[in-house]
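Follow-up to my earlier ticket, as requested here are the two runs.
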Amino acid sequence: MDSSSHPDHVDDHQGHSHWRDWLRLDMTSLSGTQTKHTLVREFGHPSAVFAQPVSALQRFVSEAQAHSLQRIPPEWEAVCARTQAWLAQTLPSMQQEVWTWDHPRYPASLRDIEEPPLVLYAQGQLQQACWQGVAVVGSRNPTPQGKENARRFANELQQSGCCIVSGLAMGIDAAAHHGALECASNHRCATVAVVGTGLDRVYPRQNHSLARQVAQHGWLLSELPPGTPPLPHHFPRRNRLIAGLSHGVLVVEAALKSGSLITADLALSQGKEVFAIPGSIHSVLSRGCHALLRQGAKLVENAQDVLEELPFITQGLRDLAKASPDNLPTDPHQQAVCKALGHEPQHFESLLLQTGLTLEDALMALQQLQDSNRVAAMPGGGYQRLY
């Protein structure tokens, strides 16, 4: 049965037809995505590929693969039905679309990456392009300082005209999306979350509200059709899309064996800039960043350091993004605690000795600094200054 005879093979509500043919080709087992792109370049469209005799297809694939191209994948109709049901959902103030290789909204920056997807699924403010993307990635279990760094860098970069790209994971990813959303407007795409599931589900579940906010001010993007669960091998593959959508990748905190380093390596292979924030030599979560720095990544301490390497940012936007110096609180007790803390975790007894404050004054200053998100309590009773 050829896909063109399928009863639903008509222009859908987004005004773009034949996504089912692209989906069928995407689901056909071949030797890789590049082979599928070669077939499309040769024959013009997936529907034309399926119409070819085995002898013509064998110029590019094996005989067994040629026969598989002439057969409908077993799950294809079910996936088409789930995709059509997903497209038919009415969601307030956002769009849902299937972007095939020939779709006008298919991101141009993804066309040159290794194994570019034939099909993408998108939800959100899709009329707003992801211009000037910068990826912010890192550990799923960061320190309080790492989360704050991700939030602040993302916030300042987004205010400077960058679209923040990340993966909607817990930890650094979520903090980066939140930072971008804090200053989101209705005029441009604030952030893009590239996910490792179908867009009809959210993983992790704790980020359901965050996913909805991202869709209200940016995009949710996946190469996986609706109904796809969060399988482990999906997440490393989606990292090539995070890197591909971005001019540069900022790694905030990462262990040596981290998916963030995969994203950084992919960015380097694509000729993109890689940035890393240094940390304590005693922290496991600094080792990935330090490894990148040894390999030539740019050490950054503020958003301005990132912007200086991105030529698409105008000087006016760079000036806007310059991080102000560490502004100490006006209260003298809080000032004393901040100066004593620095940016390394310290125990309360050490703070008392360094500040000379009374027990009551030190406890009150610490509580006020935590309330204003300047200081975080660490596991084991320590404290760390966030900025």
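Run two:
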Amino acid sequence: MLKSLLKPIFALCIVWPVMRLWMGLRIHQHHNLPKQGPAIIVANHNSHMDVFALMSLYSPLQQRHIHPAAAADYFLSNKWMAWFALNILNIIPVTRQNSGQGNPLQGCEEALRKNKILILFPEGSRGEPGKMQPLKSGLWYLSAAMPDVPIIPVWLQGTEQIMAKGNRIPLPLFIDVNIGRPMYYHPDKEQFKAKLLNNLLALRPLYKKRDSND
């Protein structure tokens, strides 16, 4: 029972106050956010703050349904980080260097079949602030296995200035989250990746309208 309360308590006491008050998180196009799963939220990735920004889109009571997909080699590298990642962040570990033994996305598929909401960064790892890296193919394989699950593109602006690669202390700057319309599986992998990239990049100009929150 206590274990199931850890993530909601963390969200209520840490994530929401930090992201909503300290970081001034602003949400655009909120109506595109899925209220329940199964669904996959994908976003650009420049900072450790990215996952907390996406988690804060949902209330503390909804947190048990939210699962970030995260690199097993990084988040399970020591027992303390592994405990925090598995019990507080509620991650689904994904093996990035798969030697062909089993399905590295099996945990993600199982979560979606249980109507969970998955957070996934299609670049695979944090990149240079403000720039997109080439998209990995993992999301396409996951979508091929779950073709009816909506994929919601999200563009994060501001996290790259707060806690980018190499920075350890979060600075109080505004974070904007722009949520796009859902897309679905396409049988051509390269077309799928190109459409996803275009959908993500198309969300960037909306941040020029700072008063467009809804």
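The only thing I checked on run two: The first helix runs from residue 2 to 22. Let me know what else you need.
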